[in-house]
Amino acid sequence: MIADSLSMRYPQTALVGLRINNVIPPDDYGRFEAEWEDPSRSKGNFWSYIDARDVGTAYRAALEGTSSGHEVCLIAAADTRAKRPLRELMAEYYHGYDSFAADYQDPRSAFDCSKMKELFGWTPTYSWRDS
Questions:
Q1: 33: buried, middle or exposed (CB in 10 Å: 19+, 13-18, 0-12)?
Q2: What spatial distance separates the first Cα and last Cα of the chain, rounded to whole Å?
Q3: What is the Cα–Cα distance from 126 to 86, expressed in whole angstroms?
Q4: Which of 3, 27, 54, 124 has the fewest CB neighbours in a 10 Å radius?
């Protein structure tokens, strides 16, 4: 609400809020193994994460990009941190939350960062699967 108010008062000023999801440094990916044994440990954020290096590039993209008013963008890795399919995990841990977009494919994240791509050309680069 504050950012919305500021953007109305100072329309020449762009405000960007990044909603960053569960930052993990690349040398900490090993902790995911315990969560694979007990997926309930990371269900609170739908098994999502973001590599710390991608957080840096997201901030840079927002700072160097062009926008107007107040924008809020989700920041998450493109994939989940789980080894099991997200559909399966959602059905097991979130009764009734079993609807997915028709084009959803595992291991894609539950969080859509397309607004960040549209506004600033940013997409997450890093994945624990590549390490």
A1: exposed
A2: 40
A3: 19
A4: 27
Grade residue 98 by pLDDT with cuts at 50, 70 and 90. Answer: confident
Which candidate, 103, 43, 51, places its Cα nearest to that of 76?
A: 51
pLDDT in tens, 69-87: 999 999 999 999 999 999 9
pTM: 0.90
| Nearest alpha-carbon partner for 131 in 53, 24, 27, 35 | 27
Q: Domain range spanning residue 69?
A: 2-130
The domain tally of the chain equals 1
